[in-house]
Amino acid sequence: MSVDRRDFLRAGGASLAAALLGACDAEGPQRAARLLEYAQRKNESLERSLFRHTAMDHAKPGALASGDAFPSYFVSDAVPALDAAASAAWRLEVGGMVSRPLALSLDDLMRLERRTQRVNHYCVEGWTAVAEFTGVPLRELARLAGADPKAGYVDFQSFDDDYHESWDAESAMHPQTLVVYAKDGAALTTAYGAPARVHSPVKLGYKNTKYLTKVVFLPERNGGYWSDRGYEWYAGL
Amino acid sequence: MTSTPRHHWIVRVTHWVNAVALTLMVASGLRIFNAHPDFARPGNTFCCYPFAGKAVPGALTFGGWLAGARHWHFAMMWVLVVNGLVYLAFVYLHGEWRDLVPRRGDIRDSWEMLRFYLFARSDHPRQGKHNALQKGAYFVMPWVGALSVASGIAIWKPVQLAPLTGLLGGYQWARYWHFVSMSAIVALAVGHVFMVFAVDPYALRSMITGGYSERLSPEQRNARPFINLLPPRKGGAKAKRT
Prior knowledge:
The complex is a heterodimer of chains A (237) and B (242). In chain A, a hairpin with a 5-residue loop joins strand 3 (115-122) and strand 4 (128-137). Chain A has six helices and ten strands; from the N terminus they run H-H-H-E-E-H-E-E-H-E-E-H-E-E-E-E.
């Protein structure tokens, strides 16, 4: 069969169109997965080289706090709530590569250096919410626990089923990364992660573990709930 | 058929790379947009988007799910940007920019092209490589592209590059400008493809092999959309005026 240029172009165009139509709403060819992972690694190293502790987030002056319109999520079957006894027994453990492991009650946390900031919460879905968060800067907890400077990663674990997310230490030590116990001037409610949660505008929402139980300093990254389900691990802003 | 060289191979390659990268960027971007098809903060309203809450049809999207679309978007953006910079550098260094920058008289010439397309004038205005409307579209494209890249960076790094995000009016507005510039690019691209097939399908050859037959130019054929599409008959100096 002879194929002239016209036929070739026609057949080529048809197969290209078919490929495009077939690709609609699809994840794309499997072969591309490695290329996408490569791009993700390169983006991460670029973003980490760009990262500065002096770059801060501030909510727009005129923006009202989102209040209860601030969407909230959890992964357990029901809202992870502690009863009064469990709340009293709750401790935030700071461990891993530290010289003085800590176990802090909520009262202990509230006696430590605090920071109040009116910032944006950036969700991976594309929305943002404004809230005023009060809590202990993570760098202060790291200092009190004597975290090893060689610990390049921090894992934030919770009692919301197996939810956790690990971070690069640079982002965890950003002055706006807090262990939060109050939102908009009131104690954190169950929907927003009571008794304490991580919050920082330098990471997408899903990196900010709610219902916090443990802060673990690690030599290696430890994935995370959404990071292990295909969302990017770094998720920096 | 006699043909003269029209598009340098760098222009042809960057054109088709751009076509593929742009399609993937728009489709994956729409899939990302569908996770929150609104520009308002929860509990607020946004002035300037009438379709809030309505998702884009899945058939126009790519990536399968939010994370998948984000991986494609953040990989393909480099192809789009590097390819765009190669094109701009070439056009600047090789002098092709002279065919594209606006000149005195372009507004009048655009008006005359519009009159011709609307049958208010019978003969095709004189033109160079491109007609005035076409030239305007090709000149605007890189600027809209630059806005889409700038607004894209602003919503990618709204904290580390906060001054850029602030310049665009904050995160919500930067996201809006990203959507608006995408819409403008799609409108220009759809108009461009329509005009190629309806007025100058012979230009397709010039974007593949590089050669263009001046005898078949829209000016020689006196071509409007779907009118005088076929080559002029042999012997006839110019197509019959309509």
